[in-house]
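Lecture 7, part B: from sequences to assemblies.

Below are the input chains for today's worked example.
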Amino acid sequence: MTTTPAAAPTNLRRVPLAKRFLTFTWLTVGLAIAILVFYTFVQPSIVVDTLVTGGMWALLAAGLALVFGVMNIPNFAHGEFFMIGSLTAFFVFSPLQDAMFNDPAGTGLLKIVAPFPGMIAALIVGFAVGAVLEVILFRPLRKRSRDQWVMNTFLLTAGVSVVLINGDRLIFGNDFRGATRYWDVRPISILGTSVSVDRIAVFVIAMVTILLFSAFLLRTRTGRAMRAVAQDEAGAQMAGISLNRIFVLTMGLSCALAALAGASLLWLYPSYPDVGLQPLYLAWYVVILAGLGNVQGAIVGAFIVSLIQTLTVTYVGLDWIDVVPTLFIILILLFKPSGLFGSEVKGVWEQ
Amino acid sequence: MLKLTAVEAGYDLLQVLWGVDLHVEEGEFVAILGPNGAGKTTTLRSIAGFVPPIHGSVTFRGKELRGTLPHQVSRIGIGYVSESLNLFPSMSVYENLLVGAYTVKDKSAVAATMDTVFELFPRLLERKDQLAGTLSGGERKMLAIGRGLMPRPSLLLVDEPSLGLAPIPTLATFEALKTLRERGMTILLVEQNVNTTLRIVDRAYVLEQGRVVLEGTGDELLGNTHVQEAYLGI
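Predicted structure of the full complex, as structure tokens:
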């Protein structure tokens, strides 16, 4: 963006780099780490909860940030992929669960691997639905006109969200479809708190996925092409990168991550038509906090939001769980409008 | 190798090219000269697929390019170094070059091409891990040309490499283009720096108001009265 004189958004703030970093980003990150370390010794459950939910918000937020960075789409239908993921996982997992009930003496292997087919199915279905949306909705819109793109796609995704929620309601009804637990094992004691295996599994799945996802973006040819498209579409085309192909992949991948989050949290968030709304807002908190389109920032931001949530629940009360993060977001927007890690608004086209 | 016949092109309601005819043969170093707004950049953009011609034809090795998307143009062997360079500012020099080689599957070929680029522009090797957004103007041009070379194109389109550069980096860029040409690269260059350009190219076209008004070898055009009066100030 710096190569084009017309790159307007970069000049919004003229605070010296060093000062900017010292005053806000590192202060916040440092504070977060300090609080974490402090509570490790005082109240370990806060750390455990922060890490478990943070991992899931990271999956959601990373996909949201990716789509905004590469395609400039503020995806307000992202939560519905969470719903699609949990629904898929439910339909794959329940027959397996029934099989385990009917045969309690059955092999231990099934008990260990039973949740995974549902998660893999959620990944695949999420990817497919995301890719289809790109092809049948965003591609025709892009062909027609790119004027007011962010606004138009915002409206489009809000519409998609309504259609998917009500489509779910129409086909599957207003029922909760969940699972009480994935792994029927005793909780494990970590740092003096007992943690269910499901929670640990969720954390491990989130971490492994984020690691693979980051490695994909940073080290592979296709991941590099995605970042190239985010930074300069024309430049990417000059290098022979097909925008359409990258867009399909980006949308599919982002939706697959959201669906995986939904599938992994089936025991906590039973599938319901608008189960995705709360996760959607949280993912947006994270993305705004980290800076729009910044994938790595979103991963760190997810843990910060999760920490704020956990602290709120512990010390203020469950009713305040959405209030405190929102207040925090308002403060961020007032003092650092481009987000904690956003030195510039990445990926937005030069107008 | 490349042939434009009566190409008309423009943006929305503004037509810029009004019938451009030009051709570039294998191994040639050809320049398009002309004042601001004459359509030099639009000519390159219409070859590269960013501004599809309204009328006329663009053929590359006998194949019609009309309707070809920019990334397909790159894949058939036409490298394009745009005026605004279109680098990836948050990627390192090395990564910019790697993305440039996106279409090359063979890793050893990529490494070999990268070595040639570093040999042509030793500065880029020094700055290998630096982010492209932090490079100086001259280094950015080098990187853009380097990235354009990574897919091993047979024809390189270069738009105003001297734009915004001090005299010394400008000369360095021209030297690099000359070296490339000596190694057999076909180059179509757009320039405003008429004097220097005419001394290094084989042939040149003068574009005015969307039409080719003059064409000839570098020496012929240097001796032409119109060129001398309008561009060289003699």
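Note for the exam: The mean pLDDT of chain B is 93. Keep this in mind when comparing with the next example.
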